[in-house]
Amino acid sequence: MAKIGIIGSKGRMGNALVSAIEEAGQTVAGGVDKGDDLGALVAVSDVLVDFSSPHAMEANLAACVAAQKPIVIGTTGLEERHHWLIDDAAQDIAVLQTGNTSLGVTMLAALVKEAASRLGSDWDIEIVEMHHRMKVDAPSGTAMMLGEAAAAGRHIDLASSSERGRDGITGARKEGAIGFASLRGGTVAGDHSVILAGNEESITLSHRAENRAIFARGAIKAALWLQGQKAGRYTMPEVLGL
After folding, report:
1. SS3 per residue for the chain
2. Which residue among 69, 82, 113, 135 is the active-site one?
3. Confidence (pLDDT) at 165
4. Mean pLDDT along residues 15-22
5. Active-site residue, 131 included
6. pLDDT at 151 over 90
7. Per-residue pLDDT tens for 187-241?
8. Which of 69, 82, 113, 131 does the annotation list as catalytic?
9. 100 or 179: which carries more pLDDT confidence?
10. pLDDT, average across residues 26-48
11. Multiple choice CATH, 3-101+212-239, 3.20.20.70, 3.40.50.720, 3.40.50.300, 3.10.310.10
12. Domains of the chain: which residue ranges?
């Protein structure tokens, strides 16, 4: 029975993670938020799950490295420097970072990568996501993950091939670009669609999150899998053997 610690326990995912841990027959080691004793939680945990904020990333990773404890990071809104911190920590501990812990979204990303690799650049790729009105980052971490999957399928760099925030006279769409559109409103847990539009036909691959419990269940599955891994950086597809 694994003892799983929750970083960001009072956030929207906190209660869902507690329920998922208990549902999986594991033990809740405890939870911390800003100002709490992180070191004490890490010390009594076998593995940590982090859904806090990018600002806490450095301290969270440092505590896990010091105690040699693996960590699942589901925090979104990460910048390039955060990924550098994760790469550095992964030299000493097992770290799984993802923009979405849903098993369904993980499979969706695999399908997007496959479709993008099979269809030519004349098939335009657009990623549309909608979340609740309280979400602070855009595009969502999941949308970026799906964009990375599409870019990987086409062997291109997402950063230099994406189009966002179209407004006014923007000119024609660039061939091969990956477009993003972000919608916010209500209490939507997360809707994502990847549209591949060709000449006179299109394909839409979609995922709808009906409850945050799906993210919590995926995160706990990832945490239990991560326990047995050596130091390194891992992703959700590896949890599913993709």
Report:
1. CCEEEEECCCCCCHHHHHHHHHHCCCEEEEEECCCCCHHHHHHHCCEEEECCCHHHHHHHHHHHHHHCCCEEECCCCCCHHHHHHHHHHCCCCEEEECCCCCHHHHHHHHHHHHHHHHCCCCCEEEEEEEECCCCCCCCCHHHHHHHHHHHHHHCCCHHHHEECCCCCCCCCCCCCCEEEEEEECCCCCCEEEEEEEECCEEEEEEEECCCCHHHHHHHHHHHHHHCCCCCEEECHHHHCCC
2. 135
3. 85
4. 94
5. yes
6. yes
7. 998 999 999 999 999 999 999 998 889 999 999 999 999 998 999 999 999 999 9
8. 131
9. 179
10. 96
11. 3.40.50.720
12. 3-101+212-239, 103-208
Q: Is the pLDDT of residue 87 over 90?
A: yes
Strands in 201-208's sheet, in edge-to-edge order, are 162-163, 178-184, 124-131, 191-198, 201-208
Strand 124-131 versus strand 191-198 pairing type: antiparallel
**What class has domain 103-208?**
alpha beta
**CA 169 and chain centroid, separation:** 33
Report the relative pairing of strands 47-50 and 3-7 from DSSP bridges: parallel
Active site residue 192: no
Q: Which amino acid is at 182?
A: S
Judge whether residue 17 has pLDDT over 90.
Answer: yes
The average confidence (pLDDT) of the chain is: 95
